[in-house]
Amino acid sequence: MSWNKIEIIRNSRAYRKARELMTATIESPKQLLKLVSNAQSKVSQGKNSDRLSNVMESTKAAIRLVKAYAVGEYRDVSFESLALIVSSIIYFVMPIDLIPDFILALGFTDDAALLAWTFRAVAEDIERFIQWEEQSEMPDTTDQQRVD
Questions:
Q1: Is the pTM value of this prediction over 0.85?
Q2: Torsional class of 105: left (φ above 0), alpha (ψ -120 to 50), beta (otherwise)
Q3: Are 87 and 122 in contact (CB under 8 A)?
Q4: Domain residue extents for the chain
Q5: pLDDT, tens digit, for every residue of 92-112?
Q6: Is 75 in a helix, a strand, or coil?
Q7: Complete DSSP assignment for 4-64
Q8: What is the pLDDT of residues 43-83, one digit of tens each?
């Protein structure tokens, strides 16, 4: 999607509304977790997966990042990156945005374009989070004593 189309989305009333909601959402772990739940529900809907396939893995990682931030497990993300991620996820879960989701074949194109743009802008933060997740899942064997 061209830069002009992304600018149209970013200048839309729906995205401005998402940006307005972003600060209050970030400041409230309860609101962040509600956003995570809504986003997970929307991602899990089968009809969305085809239209969002090119950004699905990054979307899932971003949702996990927001959840880890909300519960205080992960804070190695700049406010600017978190703000972009949260704003884009709010836009994604909004039922009425620039192209309403119920419009067949087009409804998720604006969501996918905005998410793709966001993930390119915060790629280092998403990658760092994924690495943190992978390291967190590895069992820590440094404190275990060897028994022969």
A1: no
A2: left
A3: no
A4: 3-136
A5: 988 765 455 444 445 567 788
A6: coil
A7: HHHHHHHTSHHHHHHHHHHHHHHT-HHHHHHHHHHHHHHHHSHHHHHHTGGGHHHHHHHHH
A8: 887 555 555 677 888 999 999 999 999 999 999 999 999 99
